[in-house]
Amino acid sequence: QVQLVESGGGSVQAGGSLRLSCAASGSGFSINYMAWLRQAPNSERELVARITYGGTTNYADSVKGRFTISRDNANNTMYLQMNDLKPEDTAVYYCNANAVVSGLLRGYWGQGTQVTVSS
User: Fold this and answer.
1) Which of 66, 76, 62 is nearest to 16 (CA)?
2) Nearest by Cα to 88 from 67, 72, 71, 105
3) Which is nearest to 114 in space by CA: 64, 54, 39?
4) SS (H, E, C) the chain
5) How far apart are CA 21 and CA 80, in angstroms?
6) What confidence tens digit (pLDDT) does each residue in 27-57 have?
7) What are the CA-CA distances from residue 79 to residues 3, 19, 47, 67, 76 (Å)?
8) Distance (Å, rounded) from C-alpha 79 to C-alpha 82?
9) Taking phi first (over 0 means left), then psi (-120 to 50 degrees means alpha), and beta for anything else, what does residue 112 get?
10) Residue pair 32/98 in contact by the 8 Å Cβ criterion
11) What is the pLDDT, as a whole number, of residue 27?
12) Contact status, residue 35 vs residue 46, Cβ threshold 8 Å
């Protein structure tokens, strides 16, 4: 099993910044890619950004140029630096990892962290 723990959410004013972290723990696992997704009230969960083990990234159009995803493979930790935050970025942000455990490829989720941006 893989456990994912997010941290770094909070409340900021528009134009502010936050940095989210996601730490993966467990035993005998190998993470393929990791991603951040978010879900606003009455909306579907959407991909924000994803990063492969090799560092290839992709972003939702709505966050390009403002958010930066990164990861520390040695410590199985992923980050999301969020700058120039907008009220529409308000959502619960979830960490997701695609990992091989005991030869099986599975997806894992964190518990989510709230990000609230006020205008």
Assistant:
1) 66
2) 67
3) 39
4) CEEEEEECCEEEECCCCEEEEEEEEECCEEEEEEEEEEECCCCCCEEEEEEECCCCEEECCCCCCCEEEEEEHHHCEEEEEECCCCHHHCEEEEEEEEEEECCEEEEEECCCEEEEEEC
5) 7
6) 888 889 999 999 999 999 999 999 998 999 9
7) 16, 7, 15, 10, 10
8) 10
9) left
10) yes
11) 82
12) no
Residue ranges in the chain whose pLDDT is less than 50: none
Q: Give me the pLDDT at residue 69, please.
A: 98
CA distance 23 to 4: 6
- In this structure, is the dihedral angle defined by the CA atoms of residues 12, 16, 19 and 20, taken in order, positive or negative? positive
* Furthest CA-CA distance within the chain: 47
